Amino acid sequence: MRSRQHTKPALRRVLDESPESPRALNDSPNDGAQPANVLGNDGALLDAYSEAVASAAQRVSPSVVNIEVFRKKGASEAPAGTGTGFVFTPDGFVLTNSHVVAHAHRISVTLLDGRHAEGALVGSDPHSDLAVVRIGASALAAAALGDSARLRVGQLAIAIGSPYGFQCTVTAGVVSALGRSLRSQSGRLIDDVIQTDAALNPGNSGGPLVNSRGEVIGVNTAVILPAQGICFAIGINTAKYVAARLIRDGKIVRAYVGVAGMTAPLHRRVIRFFHLPRETGVMVTSVEPGSPADKAGVTPRDLIVAYGGSPVGAVDDLHRFLSEEQVGAKAELTVIRGTERLQLEIVPSKAM
Questions:
Q1: Which is catalytic among the residues 98, 128, 205, 212?
Q2: Which residues in the chain belong to E strands, given as ranges?
Q3: pLDDT tens across 209-268, in order?
Q4: Catalytic-residue membership of 323
């Protein structure tokens, strides 16, 4: 039972308190013979694991909803797919994926108790693949939200959703990795993504990923189809921020500079001469007339290597820097133009 050294304290107590636990057997006098009830102790451990999964699922399932989307088709409407969401406030706000409700003409929400409610889209953010829908229903159970910053690799992760329309299906696994990046359908990177091996299938999108206490730690969003057990969830801390902004404004505000660009390698001599920390930068392919970049003097073929003093090695770096806080704030844009390094002052505007 070498694995006992790695069990959680709650599970270890189950083993220690068992009259036939390995500790009790080891403490009792014997002649070094193999304990006869090892399988019984494994059973206690598995029972504790099963109880943790069942309790978490029972706690969260009343908050989980099935979402059916309809789109306009001529004079009528047609089903356009299903997904999952979960109620996170008692007054009917539901969190789900942006791609689940994209281009929806009508949203139908089914609760665990069989009630149906029409959903109104409060706001959607394709860049983080999150959306908020509101339903008008009484006696709603709101899911408890956890803290994704406190997650550890290897801890229990439970996914609840409606794959292929099978409502409130539960799968369990572990947190496989933290800090992953996932590209959204809009092209931006979603940072701080949770990787898990809890099985996800079409229809699980937008459902909660929860810990053993039944707290939501992530929003299930994607699965790598050719792989086995590689699934992703957006950290709940990111979801809290996005949901709050969507409820307040209906959208997420981001900064805009007005350039199109691509990640490009820097010449070794340029890197050495200017002591640049990255081997790549963002090559500007076009500048929108009248944009903040145009007013700052940025021209096509400039290589952006820093923004606000922070290195820029790829287009995704520039996306990360252009947050809501940068709107209207002066920043220093460092570009390489030919053999010169230029410091341009830029004031990003609000993205439309």
A1: 205
A2: 64-73, 76-87, 93-96, 106-110, 116-125, 130-135, 156-161, 169-183, 189-196, 208-210, 216-223, 231-235, 255-256, 259-265, 280-287, 303-307, 310-311, 331-337, 340-346, 349-350
A3: 999 999 999 999 987 776 677 899 999 999 998 999 999 989 888 899 999 899 999 999
A4: no
